[in-house]
């Protein structure tokens, strides 16, 4: 069994490689954040995000972290966005949504609703959200989103990102 060696010295946080490695130790779900574009055809715009978490039940809030300098977020922030919690089998779609903007929806038939929110079909959950607030935080922006409507299926296995790879969850029985 691998364990962290307690005799191994801590490294300075200024070591960016080691910081990224430490961040990768924390598994997270992965989401798509998408909406209909303002262009005449209303083509979908969107991106993948692994820095996503639930925040509050009252009001219903989730957060997503967006890199400063993102060219996609300014186009998404107006109106209602669709947050799709990727299912375990959607790693390829997730990677595509993290790639070049012109290829993000290749091979995907997104679902759009009347609010302009766009969802990835087959996802574990769909949340229609509006921006509650944006908080500058280092080289990212923490975006708090109010959930206005949702649908979900907890039986759908989520996509999990850990150590720069997609992983699967394992159900474990409680020990007696």
UniProtKB/TrEMBL annotation:
* Flavin reductase like domain residues: 23-168
Assigned keywords, A-Z: Oxidoreductase
Concerning InterPro entries, the annotation shows: Flavin_Rdtase-like_dom (IPR002563), NADH-dep_flavin_reductase (IPR050268), Split_barrel_FMN-bd (IPR012349)
Which protein is depicted? Putative oxidoreductase
**Gene Ontology MF annotations:** FMN binding; riboflavin reductase (NADPH) activity
Name the Pfam families on file: Flavin_Reduct (PF01613)
Report the SMART domains cross-referenced here. Flavin_Reduct
| Record family assignment | Belongs to the non-flavoprotein flavin reductase family.
